[in-house]
Write a structure and sequence with these properties.
- Helices cover 30% and strands 25% of the residues.
- The chain is of the alpha+beta class and 427 residues long.
- The chain folds into 2 domains: 211 residues, UDP-n-acetylglucosamine1-carboxyvinyl-transferase, Chain (Alpha-beta prism); 207 residues, Enolpyruvate transferase domain (UDP-n-acetylglucosamine1-carboxyvinyl-transferase, Chain).
- The strands form 7 sheets. A 4-stranded mixed beta sheet has the order 22-23-2-24. Strands 3-15-17-16 form a 4-stranded mixed beta sheet, with helices on one face. It has a 4-stranded mixed beta sheet with strand order 5-6-4-14, covered by helices on one side.
- β16 and β17 form a beta hairpin.
- α4 runs parallel beside α6 and α8 packs parallel to α10.
- The longest helix is centred in the middle third of the chain and has 13 residues.
Length: 427
């Protein structure tokens, strides 16, 4: 399917109202993979309707699982898992597809797959994943782009130290370790809320995991997992997107079904720029941005709980219309500035050298024809277009749909003049 759709934004309208934050893509995907390990039907609530989630469900179907959706609830019946090969076309749809490796190995002791695709953000090697699995007794060979992974003698626990706190590697090791023999220790583990969410689900299924959310995670292997019911955590990056949209339009929003404790890496930055942000009961967050914002000090992306790389593009958009100069240092992905030439089309003043971007705020952005080249950069273009004078057209909508449920409907409900035109068509 080719996505020939575009978003048309008539900017300059203040956002005001209430928005619900949907479930986290980066949590739902490993949770869906984890369902492979459970002998029976798992139920996931607050599971977002995203193209990446659809792709994950297609992978599950290829493995012999039965997937059904009703509203935001997805049921995965893994009673009859009969496959361990993931087709190349499905692996190429998203980078997170690699998380199925640990789960399938844990269930069938064999997995055949290709290298993952998805947004081109630069090198995101899976060497950490493969090295750890080899240490756990998995034999891995590569031929013509295919990875053949087998654990004929079973997966064994051990001590794994990651050179970088990779979220994907941490998830894969956890998924492989829950039914391994013995104890697995993951040192320098990722600490993201999505890791905690995965651990809590696996524990509900009968796994023995401690330390999730800290730098060392311990997993005691069990013989098998049972099905469980779980609610996916809110998407902190979607929440951040809405906050940035409010900031750029000098708006006032209440976000519901969110968790401000997951956003400590960037909420203080918005507050320092002039936003008024107040969390209050029942998973709600109030934001009010009554004036033009001030540029923040240098922002350096870091692993959680630092400033997230997934929110960097959105903040470069916000700073493009702020007072003063902001400096961004991207430490995670070398190609995470692909959206900046598009922001410049809107009139932004930004210079990039290597991993450093210097953003000189301008008084007013102007509408332009834009093209999204990846997920978060695409969301940043939408956010900037909301604040720009005149009309903007954004193509590459398929990237945005990977992480946002009908972003135009959500923004339109709080006053944005935004619509989706065109349709998906077959190549």
């Amino acid at each position: 399917m080719a996505n020939c759709q575009k978003l048309v934004v008539n900017g300059g309208r203040r956002l005001e109202g209430e928005l619900r934050v949907h479930g986290a893509k980066n949590s739902a995907l490993p949770l869906l993979a984890a369902c492979v390990l459970a002998h029976g039907e798992c139920v996931l609530h607050n599971c977002p309707e995203l193209t990446d989630v659809d792709a994950a469900c297609r992978i599950l179907s290829c493995l012999g699982c039965r997937c059904t959706r009703s509203g935001d609830t997805v049921c995965v019946d893994a009673s009859n898992v009969c496959g361990n090969e993931i087709p190349d076309n499905l692996m190429r749809e998203m980078r997170s597809s690699i998380v199925f490796l640990g789960a399938v190995l844990g269930r069938t002791r064999r997995c055949k797959l290709t290298f993952p695709g998805g947004c081109e953000l630069g090198a995101r090697p899976i060497d950490l994943h493969l090295a750890a699995l080899r240490d756990m007794g998995v034999t891995i060979s590569e031929e013509h782009g295919w990875l053949e992974c087998t654990a004929a003698g079973g997966i064994r626990g051990g001590s794994v130290t990651l050179s970088f706190p990779s979220v994907g590697a941490t998830e894969n090791i956890m998924l492989a370790a829950v039914t391994a023999s013995g104890r697995t220790e993951i040192h320098n583990a990722a600490r993201e809320p999505e890791i905690i969410d995965l651990a809590e689900f696996l524990v509900k299924c009968g796994a023995k995991i401690t330390g999730a959310g800290g730098s060392t995670i311990c997993v005691e292997g069990v013989s098998r997992l049972s099905p469980a019911e779980h609610t996916v955590i809110p998407d902190r990056i979607v929440a951040g997107t809405y906050l940035c949209a409010a900031a750029m339009t000098r708006g006032e929003l209440i976000l519901t079904r969110c968790d401000p404790s997951h956003m400590t890496g960037f909420l203080p930055v918005l507050e320092s720029m002039g936003c008024r942000i107040y969390p209050y009961g029942g998973g709600k967050l109030y934001v009010n941005c009554p004036r033009r914002l001030n540029a923040p000090p240098t922002i350096r992306t870091m692993p959680y709980p630092g400033f997230p790389t997934d929110i960097q593009a959105l903040f470069t958009a916000v700073c493009s219309a702020a007072e003063g100069t902001a400096v961004f240092v991207e430490t995670i992905f070398e190609n995470r500035y692909r959206h900046i030439p598009e922001l410049i089309r809107l009139g932004a003043s930004i210079k990039v050298e290597g991993r450093v971007a210097v953003v000189q705020g301008v008084e007013q952005l102007s509408g332009a024809k834009l093209c999204a080249g990846e997920l978060r950069g695409g969301a940043a273009l939408v956010t900037a277009a909301l604040a720009a004078e005149g009309t903007s057209e954004i193509t590459g909508v398929g990237y945005i749909d990977r992480g946002y449920e009908s972003i135009e409907k959500a923004l339109r409900s709080v006053g944005a003049d935004i619509s989706r035109v065109g349709q998906q068509s077959r190549n």
